[in-house]
Amino acid sequence: MTVFLQSLISGILIGGVYALIGIGLTMIFGVMRVINFAHGDIMMVGMYLTYNLFTLCGIDPFASVVICIPVMFLFGGFLQKIFINRVLNALPQNQILLTIGLGLIMSNTIMLIYTSDYKILTTSYSSGSFRIAGISISEPLAISFLITVIITAALYWFLMKTDMGQAIRATAQDREAAQLMGINVKRMSVIAFGLGTALAGTAGALITPTYYIFPQIGSTFTLKAFVITVLGGMGSVIGATLGGVIIGIAESMGAVYISSGWKEVLVYVIFLLVLLFKPSGLMGKSRM
After folding, report:
1. Phi-psi group of 11: left, alpha or beta (phi > 0 → left; psi -120 to 50 → alpha; rest → beta)
2. pLDDT-based confidence at 287, cuts 50/70/90?
3. Between these two residues, 132 and 177, which has the higher pLDDT value?
4. Which residues 6+ apart lie within 8 Å of 108 measured at CB?
5. What does the pLDDT average to over 134-161?
6. Which one is the CATH code of 2-116+138-277: 3.30.40, 2.30.29, 3.30.1450, 1.10.3470?
7. What is the CA radius of gyration of the chain?
8. How far apart are CA 17 and CA 203, in angstroms?
9. Of 36, 286, 18, nearest to 160 (Cα)?
């Protein structure tokens, strides 16, 4: 029973960070209908930004979130204005090729600067843990989960309670109708892509104390972000949150009860089952 609870809690903690990645991707798709294949590479840029802030400035990885959010938001706004905006009305395959190309540029640029060597961000709490009722809980995972909950709650409040948040949701539900009602949909697209980029970069910052940092890590998380987003329902923030937690639990349980080598396979089995029996995802009818 203790092992079960241990793996369940670990899965929920890591699943919270996965959810943050999925929410970023689903926001971009919900507002712009663009499938962003560079999402994992954007997260990787956030990881290297955090690494630089820690090694050069001595800023704690979790404290660096305060810097990561605005910097990555501006980076996302830049990408949207210069590149993504040009293909909003293009064929889907052109959008896919553009985002894949942007991802390759990011990963190869980072590789030229930092080489392909793995980097480790070691803090005083990287391997720390504490016990509750006999269950050992990873300190960095617990902190990252707490920060994720705060950011997710703040985002939910922003989308539900502010005028700009409601304008983003209106754009996601019906772009043409929102434009007829006087909403600047181009501006909403920039803000949505900026928010999605900021969430991905923040997720990168939160996992740096527990993951290796290298230029190709983005491809793994891009695939994982798509699984989370489709599992929860394309365009649903709540669905992406639920999908991230499910994937985190599945990985943790799979590593304990099957083997660490098969945990990824279990994730994709769940993904395929959802596509077979509920293709719209767990909460597919919602768009933010």
Report:
1. alpha
2. low
3. 177
4. 215
5. 92
6. 1.10.3470
7. 18
8. 6
9. 286
